[in-house]
Design a protein that fits this description.
The structure holds 2 protein chains of 2 kinds. Helices cover 56% and strands 17% of the residues of chain A. Chain A is built from 14 helices and 13 strands. Chain B has one domain (6-225): P-loop containing nucleotide triphosphate hydrolases (Rossmann fold), CATH 3.40.50. Helix content of chain B is 34%, strand content 28%. Chain B contains 7 helices and 10 strands. In chain B, helix 4 (119-132) crosses helix 5 and helix 5 (148-161) packs parallel to helix 6 (178-195). The chains are: A alpha+beta, B alpha/beta. The interface between A and B is medium-sized, with 27 and 32 residues. The structure holds adenosine-5'-triphosphate and magnesium ion. The site of magnesium ion has 3 residues of chain B, from helix 1.
Chain lengths: 385, 227
């Protein structure tokens, strides 16, 4: 207790300096956390990808569509248990800039493929029973202020006209970090409507989502599937869901890497500042440390005091920054929602932030502590008297 | 003759700055008896503080021995020496050297944290030491809220709190007006006479030296006894 009080009093001996250092550390951790959170939102989904799901798409590009008949052929491949179309729809609700993923699926298979989407039983039944029914994520519902049972009208550049769906189910993702912003509906409804209109796109599917019985055989099964469509009019490329999501992200990989590096750079910059403040504060007190040593305190004890002071300041700053982080991400989530569906501060980011706080404290104390613990008493005393 | 508290045997000490070596103490040998009140005088730069540092275990001689009740303190490791100082030596400096963020009471308590005393016992000891220097009414003051003489009294309370056998003082009255200086000297005389503390005091002040039983003059590294 005595030493805790001594450490706290020393840490706040220069109020302004301590305050500015804490503020600096807080801002740095805030910047670090914000950058990390943005990157997390960007690559979101990748980490939640299941190992036992594959994606089959046209080999030429993301935009070639596959015939409906492929479904049965894929299903026939050994190891494949479930196949659902995922027909990209490109729909938007009122405001074209407010994007969210929406596609037509085979609801029954799709829900079986995605056990992580939790919905109440009666909603599940209602969704499956209604040809025009749709299922939406909890956060998406909140974003647009929808209620279950609402009829919502989407427009898309891919097909003409207004498309009205009735929201029958709202899912909650078992994974806390998930975006919960999907909007899925009956692919049959899309197909039949297009057929009635005589569209050539009727019955075309962008991607098939494929469930397999053994995640460890993913590579072999994927090869097997693609083998089936060799030399057919539309060849396929099958990969794990993770690889599929990653492809979406790889284009921006350099930027992501850059942003991640930037976020650590911020920590480096503040380290220079806190280390300097700590160094200054210890240099000013070398005489005092000599007195403490004279009284019988060991070099290690002095190092402990200095580390304690440094940690006090850094951890306070870090805590302040982490506390402010959700408010900041919350505030910019709105304006940024066109780019990032959901800015969510992950536990991982908080953990790294806290570690950064410890690192800041320890690293800025290291040199001054070494100096103070090694300094010769006689020299220190000469300075003061 | 009884065993001396401190025996200095052929102590040499020089300082090296770059490749220039300044000899400061040359072959110093003398005893300090238990209960002695010794004044060390001499011109500025003659090595008084250096010698005091050797006696108090703050510094070690280049050669020669410092024996405390027969034990060669030069053999101790740095941490052992620190523990030895905290147990046996009380320090009084010219500029008091109190910790500015701590109250008078906490300053006195500080060296007691190195003993096995509980928090309550520490507070009691500190209160008693402050009473001994007549500062019971200033326990909660910070050093900056005390006069020079009062700060030096707190420093003396800090020096005696752990009840060491030896007190060393480097010009304890050097920064004080005459009246406060008299106060401090009377206090030291008292500690010597009543509690039997052995005191080694470096001073420039003739009056201060006369408070001691014995005065030794250091001149160009050589020591002689003044009448
Ligand atoms: N760390 C050091 N490095 C180099 N020289 C030193 C060092 N400490 C002391 N000296 C030199 O040793 C000599 C004795 O110094 P010391 O401080 O012991 O003298 P002093 O008698 O206490 O003087 P004063 O009365 O001025 O306090 C001086 O010449 C001083 O310059
Ligand atoms: Mg001196």
């Amino acid at each position: 207790m005595f030493f805790l009080e001594l450490i706290l009093k020393n840490a706040f001996r220069h109020k302004l300096r301590a305050f500015l250092t804490i503020l600096g550390a807080a801002l740095a951790i805030l910047a670090f956390g914000l950058l990390q959170t943005i990157v997390d939102a960007w690559v979101g989904g990748v980490d939640n990808a299941a190992a036992n799901r594959l994606m089959t798409r046209g080999a030429l590009s993301m935009f070639t569509s596959l015939p409906e008949a492929y479904k049965a052929k894929i299903k026939a491949v050994p190891g494949v248990t479930l196949v659902s179309p995922e027909a990209f729809f490109g729909g938007y609700y009122v405001d074209e800039r407010k994007r969210f993923p929406n596609f037509g699926v085979d609801p029954e298979v799709y829900l079986e493929l995605h056990p992580e989407y939790r919905i109440p039983d009666e909603q599940r039944r209602a969704f499956l029973a209604d040809r025009r029914g749709a299922m939406a994520g909890r956060k998406l519902m909140k974003r647009f202020g929808w209620k279950p049972g609402d009829a919502v009208t989407l427009k898309t550049h891919m097909y003409d006209g207004d498309w009205t769906f009735v929201i029958r189910a709202v899912y909650q993702d078992a994974n806390e970090d998930a975006n919960e912003d999907l909007f899925v509906f009956h692919w049959n409804y899309l197909k039949e409507t297009l057929k009635k209109e005589g569209s050539t796109q009727a019955g075309r599917v962008g991607v098939f989502s494929v469930g397999i019985d053994d995640g460890s055989k993913a590579a072999a099964i994927a090869r097997d599937i693609d083998e089936r469509f060799k030399n057919s009019p539309v060849e396929t490329q099958t990969e794990t869901e993770k690889a599929f999501f990653l492809r979406r992200v790889t284009d921006s990989e350099a930027i992501i890497l850059g942003v991640r590096m930037l976020s650590f750079l911020v920590i480096g910059v503040i380290l220079a500042v806190t280390a300097n403040a700590m160094g200054m504060s210890v240099r000013e007190r070398m005489g005092e440390f000599a007195v403490l040593k004279t009284l019988g305190f060991s070099g290690q004890a002095l190092a402990g005091f200095i580390l304690g002071e440094s940690l006090t300041v850094s951890l306070l700053g870090c805590a302040l920054g982490l506390c402010a982080l959700p408010f900041l991400t919350g505030a910019i989530s709105g304006p940024l929602s066109d780019f990032f569906p959901a800015l969510r501060v992950t536990r991982q980011t908080c953990l790294i932030g806290a570690e950064a706080g410890f690192f800041l404290g320890a690293a800025s104390a290291a040199l001054p502590a070494l100096r103070a613990s090694r300094a010769r008493i006689a020299e220190g005393l000469r300075r003061i008297g | 003759m009884a065993e001396p508290l401190i025996r200095i045997e052929h102590a040499f000490k020089s300082y090296r700055r770059g490749d220039r070596i300044t000899p400061v103490l040359e072959d110093i040998s003398f005893d300090i008896a238990c209960g002695e009140f010794l004044a060390l005088v001499g011109p500025s730069g003659s090595g008084k503080s250096t010698l005091l540092n050797l006696i108090a275990g703050i510094d070690v001689p280049d050669s020669g021995k410092i024996l405390f009740l027969g034990q060669d303190i030069g053999q101790l490791s740095e941490n052992e020496l620190a523990a030895w100082r905290s147990a046996h030596v009380g320090f009084i400096f010219q500029f008091y050297n109190l910790i500015p963020v701590l109250t008078a009471q906490q300053n006195v308590e500080l060296p007691l944290t190195l003993t096995g005393l509980s928090g309550r016992e520490r507070k009691e000891h500190a209160a008693r030491a402050l009473a001994a220097v007549n500062l019971s009414d200033r326990m909660d003051h910070r050093p900056s809220q005390l006069s020079g003489g009062q700060q030096q009294r707190v420093a003396i309370a800090r020096a005696i709190a752990a009840d060491p056998a030896l007190l060393v003082a480097d010009e304890p009255t050097g920064d004080l007006d005459r009246e406060s200086a008299e106060d401090i000297l009377r206090l030291l005389e008292n500690l010597n006479a009543r509690l039997g503390k052995t005191i080694v005091m470096v001073t420039h002040d003739q009056r201060a030296a006369s408070a001691a039983h014995l005065t030794r003059r250091l001149n160009k590294g050589v020591l002689d006894v003044l009448p």
